[in-house]
Amino acid sequence: PAVCMLRLASAALRSQRPNTSAACAAMESAMKKQRLAASGAAAAAASHGTPIAARARLHYSKEVEGKRVGRYIGVEDQGELADVHSEHEVELGDARELQPPATVDTRCFELRNNATAVQNFKDDEEIRRVYYSEMEELVKAATGAERVFVFDHTVRDGAAGSKLNAKQGEAAAAVIRVHTDYSDESGPRRVQTLADSGGYTGVKLSEAETKDILSNDFCIVNVWRNIKPEPVQSKPLAVLEPSTLDRNDFLRYEMQFAERKGENFALRYNPDHRWYFFPRMEKDECLIFKTWESRKDRPRYCFHTAFEDLDQPAGAPPRSSIEVRTVAIMPKRTA
User: Fold this and answer.
1) CB burial string 25-38: b at 16+ within 10 A, e below
2) Residues 166-183: what's their mean pLDDT?
3) Are strands 250-256 and 261-267 parallel, antiparallel or unpaired?
4) Largest CA distance in the chain
5) Which 3 state secondary structure label does DSSP give 207?
6) For 124-138, how does the pLDDT look when each residue is reduced to its tens digit (9 = 90+)?
7) What's the pLDDT score for residue 13?
């Protein structure tokens, strides 16, 4: 009986060994995954020069055979334009940690503290009366411009559904598409239309002013601000490092309205792209970014997009923001 008991105990131990080995193998596999994840995060942080602050599936544009890239706005689809997106998961660096800090001249984007006296961002008249002059002074300081004027603004609300183009006094949805607001044709043309028909906010240039701007160095600069008391926690704005752009990836994106045609640049996906954002932007912070630049001796385009953080906490409040667009005219060059 004693011998039988020893044999049974030995058999039991042998039967347990495969399970122990399996547990060890599973533990080793988990540790290997953790090491790979850590090394991947370290490599991503090294490539960005900052900690990785978010992951997102960004919407790039995709060409459709036989059609031009773009969309119809307020008019019937005529079948010539296609707005098809290609989603790609990317990691976004923490732009707050960039050293040296990003500036409009070096990276096309910059964060500045700038409190506002505006009490009600739903009041277009107050925005024009108070906010425009605040933003003109801010853009002057960031760009070194001799003169700046705001020519329109858009209030965006995360709860506005998919409405991208709002009427005056209404809120629009966030734009979930990689783009810059103007192309090499539409940037100068936008200045000309401010003389021909003016802006919807009442800005209208004289022919003499238009000629002066177009004969000078100028850029179109946007300023983006959170207008809620709590920091931005959903659909923040991502900005692309301009040194990672390849001109071959630019796509002309048409916007066909009933009375006119607009155009900006969309972008094909490129794994070399390096994305950043400023986490948890507060109401007193402004993201200044250059959407088009006439000078060719520096970065000229800030491609940008709103995005949904794949690790966004449940219950994150929808964002509300205001974006103004300005023309910044540089001092005349001396011989």
Assistant:
1) eeeeeeeeeeeeee
2) 76
3) antiparallel
4) 113
5) helix
6) 999 999 999 999 999
7) 41
Q: Which one-letter amino acid corresponds to residue 275?
A: W
Percent of the chain with pLDDT strictly greater than 90: 70
Average pLDDT over residues 250-268: 94
pLDDT averaged over every residue in the chain:
86
* 313 cis-preceded (ω within 30 degrees of 0): no
Other residues' Cβ atoms within 10 Å of the Cβ of residue 235: 22
* Nearest-angstrom CA–CA distance, 158 and 234: 8
Taking the CA atoms of residue 242, residue 228, residue 221 and residue 114 in that order, the dihedral angle to the nearest 10 degrees is -100
Per-residue DSSP letters for 172-187? B----S-EES--TTHH
**What's the distance, Cα to Cα, between the start and end of the chain in Å?**
109
- The pair of three-digit structure tokens given for residue 331, joined into one six-digit string: 């001092």
Q: How does DSSP assign 102-170, residue by residue?
A: P-HHHHSEEEEE-----S-TT-HHHIIIIIHHHHHHHHHHHH--SEEEEEEEEEEETTSTT--SPPTTS
